[in-house]
Design a protein that fits this description.
The protein is of the alpha/beta class. Helices cover 33% and strands 26% of the residues. The chain folds into 3 domains: 181 residues, Alpha-D-Glucose-1,6-Bisphosphate, subunit A, domain 3 (Alpha-D-Glucose-1,6-Bisphosphate, Chain A, domain 3); 223 residues, Alpha-D-Glucose-1,6-Bisphosphate, Chain A, domain 3 (3-Layer(aba) Sandwich), CATH 3.40.120.10; 134 residues, TATA-Binding Protein. Helix 12 links the parallel strand 15 and strand 16. Bound molecules: alpha-D-glucose-1-phosphate-6-vanadate (VG1) and cobalt (II) ion.
């Protein structure tokens, strides 16, 4: 690569350079405007004093990934970074970045992804900074980045990298001025970590014995990881990993692993040729959907089942210290924690809130209703990890997914759960719904709507038990008599308008009716919440756009 000709280019603060739930996400057209990425990347560099440090860099392979990587490399060199470890061809899944930061003792990392948001020239792009524990920057660091973005006046960058793409494609170590660039295989270290945590022999034996599976990589980053681990190392039949080739636009799809966007897999698992086990992952490989033959496992239930059975996998044989879930995730994992006599935590949405609990050894497993599950092996949620833990549990218990789920409900009861999304809303209208409900919270307890009585109404705030930091305004919680709960918040990952997420749950005890249709079981809490929050009245929407 080229020499160290550092240029200082004038810039100015750009409106909207403020990260949401998980990094800064904008349309590709916005991110690729001259100076846009550079200005935000420099704000990060200004916030973290990068000179002499080592970072990891990679992305989910979406459109603009390679261009952005070349730019960040040039800026890192110009900002005095000592070394950057980059995934071959610019590819690294989010959990793989987290692992590499930790394994190499790096000072942080840059993840280029907009996760489940569509990709391609008309799609979305994103940039997230992770700290030296491998996890998403906590609020304090994020606030510092925002402050730097608000007062930025120039960025530093070296001259062009005409051979950047060629360099990225070859594993090896290169010099970019005084900075070292190491190109690594994106899969090898991650796969080795999975072999440490799980009993690959037991899973291989189960597969040799006729157990079948399908993994839908949704043309996103997990393709190479899943093919290597599931097909090559565990012996799943060739073709078990479908949509395995990562594409810049995810094949035009929406790489969000839920029954709506992963419909192809969902339908296959409910059809006559269904294998024993189905799973999918998202754009950047940190989420998972689990489906058994003929049965979908709600992410909140998945977290609870994994918590109850984790000790069956070698990496967790000593037991787990605690389970943390985001506020809108169902209470199913709390019930497991209670039975195990371990701590249960309820955090705001977004993986950054789990970091301190994991670092302190207070939580071993964490999860979100949005299909993110993970553990203290990295500091991100991890899609393939969840798939492998499920496979390990299935291999040891020698039961079907459906039987394991039913047994779980018969032990702990069932938290019927669903998320209703109202998408593409006018931002002011969505804010008005939240503000109006927030003002009325104190008046709600005791009120009855659609046969349910509100017992508590709360504006969720979280005090981090480790560092005492406080996060306010993290969503509204309505608790009803009879074991129902509803949570409302606005999405922080979209790039257009607003999305209102309404999370709904209803508990049925072990001796209750455990096999009802989910939407039917939730019909009272749906009706009550729609009425209490004045959704139809204020938004003019009679039904949600996505039910998952
Ligand atoms: C969504 C999910 C949240 C998740 C976040 C990032 O956020 O609801 O649980 O942590 O995406 O995940 P929001 O603000 O849109 O509800 V990922 O896989 O997009 O990095
Ligand atoms: Co993701």
């Amino acid at each position: 690569m080229q020499s160290n000709d550092v240029h200082t280019i004038e810039t100015a603060p750009i409106t909207g350079q403020k990260p949401g739930t998980s990094g800064l996400r904008k349309k590709v057209a916005v991110f690729s405007e001259p100076g846009y990425l550079e200005t935000y990347a420099q704000a990060i560099f200004n916030a973290i004093t990068p000179a002499g440090k080592t970072f990891v860099l990679g992305g989910d392979g979406r459109f603009f990934n390679s261009d952005a990587i070349a730019t960040i490399l040039r800026m890192a060199a110009a900002n005095g970074v000592a070394k950057i470890i980059v995934g071959q061809n610019g590819i690294l899944s989010t959990p793989a970045v987290s692992h590499l930061i930790r394994k190499r003792g790096a000072d942080g990392g840059f993840i280029l992804s907009a996760s489940h948001n569509p990709g391609g020239p008309n799609g979305d792009f994103g940039l997230k900074y992770n700290t030296e524990n491998g996890g998403p920057a906590p609020e304090a660091t994020t606030n510092k980045i925002v402050a730097c973005a608000e007062e930025i006046s120039s960025y530093r960058i070296t001259g062009d990298l005409p051979d950047a793409l060629e360099v990225l494609s070859n594993i090896g170590t290169y010099a970019l001025g005084d900075m070292e660039v190491e190109i690594v295989d994106p899969v090898v270290d991650y796969a080795a970590l999975m072999e440490e945590l799980f009993d690959f022999n037991a899973i291989r034996k189960m597969i040799d014995g006729g157990f079948t599976l399908r993994f839908d990589a949704m043309h996103a980053v997990t393709g190479p990881y899943a093919t290597e681990i599931l097909e090559h190392r565990l012996g799943a039949a060739p073709g078990s990993v479908v949509n395995a080739v990562p594409l810049e636009d995810f094949g035009g799809g929406h790489p969000d692993p839920n029954p709506v966007w992963a419909k192809e897999l969902f339908d296959h698992m409910h059809g006559p040729d269904a294998p024993d086990f189905g799973a999918a992952s998202d754009g950047d490989g940190d989420r998972n959907m689990i489906v058994g033959r003929g049965i979908y496992v709600a992410p909140s239930d998945s977290l609870a089942v994994l918590a109850a059975n984790a000790h069956l996998a070698p990496g967790y044989a000593r037991g787990i210290a605690g389970v943390a879930r985001s506020m809108p995730t169902s209470a199913a994992s709390d019930r497991v924690a209670e039975k195990l006599g371990i701590e249960a935590f309820q955090t705001p949405t977004g993986w950054k809130f789990f970091g301190n609990l994991l670092d302190a050894g207070r939580a071993t497993l964490c999860g979100e209703e949005s299909a993110g599950t993970g553990s203290d092996h990295v500091r991100e949620k991890d899609g393939l990890w969840a798939v492998l833990l499920w496979l390990n549990i299935l291999a040891v218990r020698d039961e079907s997914v459906a039987d394991i789920l039913l047994d779980h409900w018969q032990t702990y009861g069932r938290d019927y759960y669903s998320r209703h999304d109202y998408e593409g809303l006018d931002t002011d209208a969505a804010n008005a719904v939240m503000a109006d409900l927030k003002t009325r919270l104190p008046t709600l307890p005791g009120q009855t709507a659609a046969s349910l009585t509100v017992s508590a109404a709360e504006d969720f705030a979280y005090t981090d038990p480790i560092d005492g930091s406080v996060a306010t305004g993290q969503g509204l919680i309505l608790t009803y008599e009879g074991g129902a709960r509803a949570m409302l918040r606005l999405s922080g990952t979209g790039t257009e308008g607003a999305t209102l997420r309404v999370y709904l749950e209803q508990y049925a005890p072990p001796d209750g009716d455990l096999t009802r249709d989910t939407q039917e079981a939730l019909s009272d809490v749906i009706a009550a919440t729609t009425q209490v929050a004045k959704i139809e009245k204020m938004l003019g929407r009679a039904a949600p756009d996505v039910i998952s």
